[in-house]
């Protein structure tokens, strides 16, 4: 499959992964709603119940219609009903997948964020966010363990003529001795930016908990903007990897190796990404196999043996997706790679689609496999 076709297929999955609910089959809704953990301080709504339903309440006394659109790009919709007090209230027609979801409010045709919720960068704008508690959320919970640090860095970019931003996670204990660390370059998806993996993905908490449990070798994570959003959603086939590849390989990696305690070689350098960031990962690792030793595609396509044939052999190829995406393709790709002699691992997140719980779980599975 060509890269353009793969990207087109990937974004078709994004557009169709939202659950459809039937009013006729809707079960009784438990009235045990609690405020979402992502609400603004002191805000009661939005709320989530034990079944995964979400309830919204918006103050718009002069509006004629109010609708909540959930998911990347604000697909679908929950129509709210106006009360005599001017507040519009409504509950999703069915339970949402566990984990994080973007959403926005449409009031008389205008798109707004929910004043009750915190905002997260997605869909090329700051969107409201809601969290449906997951049964396995312990692996990304904030715990009483040693914590690493996420710091913002500005690095020079001659190719773009501007300073560029990255966020760097350093593990607990970094800088207290002369220890040097491997590095994972971790990319966001289309419509997002370099804040996504820390804010929506909880990558730092996932790492802190794995390190505290002794399940991984500590390493650094670098997250930078993938330059994907300059391409309009409907013209994603026009995306060219060359400008970002130059920024990453020729400018950011040398900056990180010069300013952090890194093991600056291929065997201690990985690249992974979610969705569009996975496609960037595939293109760059195939173009620069001498730069990265570990590859990870999280809902971001697959590698075939012929892609890797004749190139420096990766130490690991990790491919994942949600069970509501295309799990058979992920499993088959890993099996084909194994049969061809590659160290390939597939992972499927149960009961999730093209969304952040899939990618949180994928990072949790990938991290212990890196830098062995």
Domain tally: 2
CATH fold naming of the largest domain: Rossmann fold
Q: Pairing-aware structural class of the strands and helices?
A: alpha+beta
CATH superfamily of the largest domain: Alpha/Beta hydrolase fold, catalytic domain
Give, in order, the helices and strands: HEEEEEEEEEEEEEEHHEHEHEHEHEH
CATH class of the largest domain: Alpha Beta
Could you give the order of strands across the largest sheet?
A: 12-13-15-14-16-17-18-19
> What is the quaternary state of this protein?
single chain
Number of strands: 19
Report the CATH architecture of the largest domain: 3-Layer(aba) Sandwich
What coarse outline follows from CA principal-axis ratios? Answer: globular
From the N-terminal CA to the C-terminal CA, the straight-line distance is 31 Å
Whole-number average pLDDT? 92
Low-confidence stretches: 6-24
Give the helix tally: 8
Please bin the fraction of helical residues.
10-25%
Profile the largest sheet.
8 strands, mixed
Radius of gyration computed on alpha carbons: 21 Å
Strand content: 25-35%
Produce the secondary structure layout.
Blueprint: H1 3-16, E1 34-35, E2 47-48, E3 54-59, E4 66-70, E5 78-79, E6 81-82, E7 87-91, E8 99-107, E9 110-112, E10 119-122, E11 125-132, E12 149-157, E13 162-170, E14 183-187, H2 196-199, H3 203-212, E15 220-224, H4 242-259, E16 269-274, H5 276-287, E17 294-298, H6 305-308, E18 316-322, H7 327-339, E19 344-349, H8 356-366
Parallel strand pairs: 14-15, 14-16, 16-17, 17-18, 18-19
Antiparallel strand pairs: 1-2, 2-3, 3-7, 4-5, 4-8, 6-7, 8-9, 8-11, 10-11, 12-13, 13-15
